[in-house]
Amino acid sequence: MAEQKLLGKRAIVTGGATGIGYGIALRFIAEGATVIITDIDQPGGIAAAEKLGPNCDFVHHDVSVPADWDAVFSIAKEKFSGLDIMVNVAGVTLMGTIEELDVETWDKTMGINVRSCFLGCQGAIKLMKTDGGGSIINMASVSSFKAQPELVAYNASKAGVDMMTKSVALHCARSGYGINVNSINPGVIQTDMLKKVVSQVDNGEALMDSYKAMHPIGRIGEPEDVAAMAVYLVSAEASFITGSAFTVDGALGLN
Ligand SMILES: NC(=O)c1ccc[n+]([C@@H]2O[C@H](COP(=O)([O-])OP(=O)(O)OC[C@H]3O[C@@H](n4cnc5c(N)ncnc54)[C@H](O)[C@@H]3O)[C@@H](O)[C@H]2O)c1
């Protein structure tokens, strides 16, 4: 049997009920970690934790709400007496151009996609800095550097996540905390989020075909593709890597 890369590691993964978050939790557990998945979707989160087995717990959590984060970190402290890995995955894609999008949708996107990472990093650093360091990953997107007119809020939120990641990484590095902080920029990945995006437009099938065609590698991605990068970034092999954004996109970003 291959060596487990995350044996004994303690992790929190937000948005773990489905999609990329679930895929990351699945790989982390296979690599020997114990994982708390969190999600706003209570039934989905409970079902996911059951599927993931005894090394997984679910905590109900709205990532945009500071008090919810306090509860998540208290549970982690109690259960784990510390934290090695924080992965901020939960996010939403709410569509609209600059002329269409209302301010409530803008604020909601920023709350769930950016404020979440701010709060997640802040709380994780508190636990990790006195406990031998750790690794943080924030989920951004190819949309952080590739503009799409119908994704004005999403584009801005993911660019914010990438730059915030660098700022946090620099702070942690200069403070000597031993905490690595990186982001991942996935291309289009086959998840519920993709289904929701496709359902928001009239010509969903055509949009899906165009997404496939946008990837020079000839396919869209799977959660496993992103999970493989996440395992690497939180493993001992990545100890010199911090403050970077890692694109996992079948060359979509080069198009
Ligand atoms: N799927 C893609 O093509 C793609 C591409 C690039 C980046 N991403 C990013 O990856 C992340 C995960 O995407 P996915 O495709 O797995 O999405 P998904 O919709 O399949 O899953 C997201 C999960 O986040 C949860 N969530 C939503 N709002 C929440 C909140 N306020 N608090 C807590 N949980 C909440 C949902 O309930 C869901 O379980 C997102 O940040 C997304 O922007 C996705």
Describe the protein's architecture and organization.
Strands 3-2-1-4-5-6-7 form a seven-stranded parallel β-sheet, with helices on both faces. The protein has helices at 19-30, 42-52, 66-80, 103-128, 152-175, 192-199, 204-214, 223-234; strands at 10-14, 34-39, 56-60, 85-88, 134-139, 179-186, 245-248. The protein has 255 residues and is α/β, with parallel strands linked by helices. 47% of the residues lie in helices and 15% in strands. The protein is globular and about 50 Å long. It has one domain (10-189, 226-248): NAD(P)-binding Rossmann-like Domain (Rossmann fold, 3-Layer(aba) Sandwich), CATH 3.40.50. Bound molecules: nicotinamide-adenine-dinucleotide.
